[in-house]
Each structure stands twice: as C-alpha cells, then as structure tokens.
Amino acid sequence: xxxxxxxxxxxxxxxxxxxxxxxxxxxxxxxxxxxxxxxxxxxxxxxxxxxxxxxxxxxxxxxxxxxxxxxxxxxxxxxxxxxxxxxxxxxxxxxxxxxxxxxxxxxxxxxxxxxxxxxxxxxxxxxxxxxxxxxxxxxxxxxxxxxxxxxxxxxxxxxxxxxxxxxxxxxxxxxxxxxxxxxxxxxxxxxxxxxxxxxxxxxxxxxxxxxxxxxxxxxxxxxxxxxxxxxxxxxxxxxxxxxxxxxxxxxxxxxxxxxxxxxxxxxxxxxxxxxxxxxxxxxxxxxxxxxxxxxxxxxxxxxxxxxxxxxxxxxxxxxxxxxxxxxxxxxxxxxxxxx
Length: 339
Fold this sequence. Notes:
By secondary structure, the protein is of the alpha+beta class. The chain has one domain. Helix content is 28%, strand content 19%. Helix 2 (51-68) packs antiparallel against helix 3 (96-102). The protein starts with 14 loop residues before the first helix and ends with a helix.
C-alpha cells in the first residue's frame, strides 16, 4: 500500500512532472494505469429532464470533441442503444447536438455518452468525457445531470494567453448554467464506474497528503446532492468553483459569501450564477508541510452550510486499511478537509 509519505514530487516540480505522475493497478494480469493527475471539471445541472439542459450538455460535449478529438480512441455511442459497448471513435467525431434534437427520448432513455482517451476504456486516460442526464424514471430523475471532462496539463501548452482553462470553463458555464461545479487539479480515473469502484482505494494516500487535489466520482456525488427533501447540496471547492443564485440565497446572498474574501479571488459571471477562481494559480497543498491552500479554505468555510455529507454505508473514498476508519468516515473527513 502506498503511504502519504511515499509520494515524492520533485523540488520545483513542473506541469510535465505532474503529467508523469501515474499509479498502476498491479492486481490483475493486465496492468493498467488506474490513476493520474490532471485538469478535471464537473458541472451539475438541476433538471436532467430539461430539453435545453440536455442540448447544452450535448453542445459542450461536441465542443470537447472539437478541442481534443484526435486524442479520443473509443466511445459509448448513444445512437447504438443502451446495451452496446464501446466503439472505435470515428474520424470527425459524432454530433451529439443532432442526436438530442432528433432522437433523444427523455421518457425512456438516459443521455449518457462517454469518450475514452485509450482503446481500453478501463484505463485512466489523460483525456475523457462522461455525460449523464437521466430518463424520466425514479429515483434517478431526481438526481442532477452532470458533465465531467478531463485533460492532461500538456493541453495548456501553446494556448493563447494565461487563462485558457478558465476561459473554457466559463464558456461551458454560460452554456450549461450549472447550479454547482468545480474545476482544477484532480485525480483522473477510468470513465467506467465499476472500474473506479475497484481501484478507488489507490487514491486514498493522495487525499491524506494533498488537500488541493480533487477526488471525484460524479455519479456518486450527484446521487448524494439530492438526498432528503431539502435543497440540493454541493460537494465543495476547487481552484474554480461554481454556484448558482439559489445556492447563494441559501447562504444569505452573494454579498454574505463574497464581501470579505481576499483580493486574490476572481469572478466570472454567467446567467444565473458565478464561477469563482480561488487565487491566481491552482494549489496542491501539502499536509506534511502544514500547507493548506488558503484561498480554497476561505471559500470552503463560507460554503460549509450547504455542503453534502455521505450517510452511513455510502462513500466516495475507500481506505485500503479497513481497520483505520470506515469508508463513510474517510469520505466525510475529506469533504471537510478545509474546515
């Protein structure tokens, strides 16, 4: 088992160094990359059955294909039906906006295309996209829709200006109008949910060491956002954090949340919400050095009243040592890491 103190980053490490940081799953005859570090984003929309929401998700997915299509190797094709497996990615991609406009059947079919940056979808590839909006069937239709995309740090090379990632995230927010989201440095896992469940214990040492590295399983997060009868809950913060006006209202309004934040924060408006940048650059932090990213911490403390927790028996993380603590306890402790 990897321990937090076993993780060594070079002094003055670069983004190239982070792209090379991978964890391999050696538990099977075919060794696969189970985890890597990269740029990640997840956005959550309140109504998965709204036609405009589903179209916006498709348009953002088409945008992702335009940006990185040459790196996509296979995908789950919504035209092929829910029981089909991954197919080779076609040259020129697939138009998901056309699919929504012509064939989307909200009553009977969930909208759930996935794109993989490796011929083997179980690999944690540097590129990938996972989209989900439920069909009109309880209980999934109560969960928010989500849009989850990943990039390697090398994607930033040769981009115009210093804000390519923020600009893209802001563009997607304007299209998706999410109620919550987060983007920045995170762990990249397989886009196949049962594979993630099998290898998620490998992520645990990173959660213990680097508070600024996000851990995300959007399907699990979405299911806990809608738990209970009250308003939807949020997961937390990253370098970029998204909140809509309803979230701000639960917290006493925008001024109550934003008025006394440090000058290092930046704000990007979209219709019905705000994208918040916590500091000029992403921060990993390091518990071993008593370094907690202070901008992240300031914002997280403001948002604590509407943050989710996982109920007993449910979890986002899995400890390799079952005697150390329950998986639910480990998950909720990580969600509260900036308190």
